[in-house]
Amino acid sequence: MAEIDDRITDIVSKDDVVLFMKGTPLFPQCGFSSRAVAILEHCGVAYGSVDVLQDMEIRQGIKAFSEWPTIPQLYVKGEFVGGSDIMMEMFEAGELQQLMNEKNVAKAEG
User: Fold this and answer.
1) Binding positions for [2Fe-2S] cluster (predicted)?
2) Which residues contact residue 91 at a Cβ distance below 8 angstroms, ignoring those fewer than 6 apart?
3) Coil, helix or strand for 37?
4) What is the average pLDDT score of the chain?
5) I need a surface site. Which of 61, 63, 64, 83 has the fewest CB within 10 A?
């Protein structure tokens, strides 16, 4: 299990914002992942994504790593933020955008 935790730690430290999701940003494979992508697009931040459907070790390991049972999962500057419901609540309250600004997250290009 330590090996998968090391892989996940490496993944979440590579980008300011990382979304573990089902599918890809262009082709989300569930409604919750689609909503999470839309929220990040509205925030205008650059982010990396991991398709958990392509790696069963990551799919199971991320749940233990964050102690959160569902996917998608959002990480900002290596810290777990939450799933799509928490993302939506934070976005609607302006808290997600504020967090991105406070953490000096890179903006999306273009």
Assistant:
1) 30
2) 39, 42, 43, 97
3) helix
4) 96
5) 64
CATH of 2-102, one of 1.10.1740.10, 3.40.50.300, 3.30.70.2740, 3.40.30.10: 3.40.30.10
| Residue 110 to residue 105: CA distance in whole angstroms | 16
Was 43 annotated as part of a binding site?
no
Residue 1 predicted with pLDDT over 90: no
For range 31-43, the mean pLDDT: 97
Interior CA angle at 91 toward 106 and 43, to 5°? Answer: 30
Q: Which amino acid is at 41?
A: E
Asked whether the predicted pLDDT for residue 55 surpasses 80, the reply is yes
Question: Which residue carries 């999962």 as its tokens?
Answer: 73
